[in-house]
């Protein structure tokens, strides 16, 4: 099977008169684990929405290759090719269990495999005691764990996680890190945004940095320890 890949070329994004960022060529494909870094407001979420097909660039294109062709009656848009997990997780009205089981990928897994995957997600995200709770009653960190567990079950080819562990305590961060690590091992392409380095960024192999209105790619991942020290100093 061909590798699923999204390539964005000659992109520029403006909001009214203000240029947010531009770049010549970036691609995101299965197997990639990319750390997307940038200050608050630099455009990390906007870049993810562009790749997800939620917004269109002012100039440039995003091209998808390696995906199954759509049926003739379906529009061949970018939407749905890469899953975008919003910073503030969107959940459905209903219980945690309903949220986990909603729209499961019945074509990719057998019913037994799916059952096992759901059970593993509940265990990994420690949602067992919350299954019957209303998703709207969850705490912020629990909601994020649920949203990630749901994405984990579906094992998308490409997954974008927008600040996935912000506002999480250490224990929740550890759970999420372990789930994301499994997706990495399964070959899911991951694009992970964070304004600061964290345990997650240590999993990454590529670095996209939005700085001075440009998105720059490199293979150098800023180290986690260094930045902890930096934050310690800057907090005082
Ligand atoms: N639809 C829009 N119309 C106008 N301005 C927008 C729109 N979407 C985003 N912006 C602006 O673009 C800038 C970048 O927003 P974005 O959410 O992409 O940043 P970010 O890097 O993800 O920030 P943070 O780290 O704070 O989440 C912000 O100043 C925001 O106000």
Automatic annotation (TrEMBL):
InterPro entries linked: AAA+_ATPase, ABC_transporter-like_ATP-bd, ABC_transporter-like_CS, ABC_transpr_CbiO/EcfA_su, Metal_Ion_Import_ABC, P-loop_NTPase
Entries under CDD domains matching the protein: ABC_cobalt_CbiO_domain1
Family: Belongs to the ABC transporter superfamily.
Organism: Shewanella electrodiphila
Keywords of the record: ATP-binding, Nucleotide-binding, Transport
ABC transporter domain mapped to chain residues: 6-236
SUPFAM superfamilies xrefs: P-loop containing nucleoside triphosphate hydrolases
Protein name from the UniProt record: Energy-coupling factor ABC transporter ATP-binding protein
Superkingdom classification of source: Bacteria
GO molecular function, a single term: ATP binding
Entries under SMART domains matching the protein: AAA
PROSITE patterns linked to this entry: ABC_TRANSPORTER_1, ABC_TRANSPORTER_2
């Amino acid at each position: 099977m061909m590798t699923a890949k999204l390539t964005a070329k000659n992109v520029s994004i403006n909001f009214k008169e203000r240029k947010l960022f531009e770049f010549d060529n970036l691609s995101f494909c299965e197997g990639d684990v990319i750390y997307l870094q940038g200050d608050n407001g630099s455009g990390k979420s906007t870049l993810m929405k562009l790749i997800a097909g939620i917004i269109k660039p002012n100039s440039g294109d995003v091209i998808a290759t390696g995906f199954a062709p759509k049926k003739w009656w379906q529009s061949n848009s970018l939407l749905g090719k890469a899953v975008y997990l919003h910073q503030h997780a969107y959940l459905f009205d209903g219980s945690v269990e309903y949220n986990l089981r909603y729209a499961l990928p019945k074509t990719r897994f057998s019913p037994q495999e799916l059952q096992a995957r759901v059970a593993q997600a509940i265990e990994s995200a420690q949602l067992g005691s919350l299954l019957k709770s209303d998703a709207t009653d969850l705490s912020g960190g629990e909601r994020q764990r649920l949203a990630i567990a749901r994405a984990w079950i579906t094992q998308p080819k490409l997954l974008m996680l927008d600040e996935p562990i912000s506002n999480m305590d250490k224990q929740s961060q550890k759970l999420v890190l372990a789930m994301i690590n499994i997706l990495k091992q399964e070959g899911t392409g991951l694009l992970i945004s964070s304004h600061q380095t964290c345990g997650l960024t240590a999993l990454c192999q590529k670095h996209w940095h939005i700085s001075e209105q440009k998105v720059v790619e490199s293979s150098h991942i800023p180290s986690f320890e260094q930045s902890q020290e930096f934050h310690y100093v800057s907090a005082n």
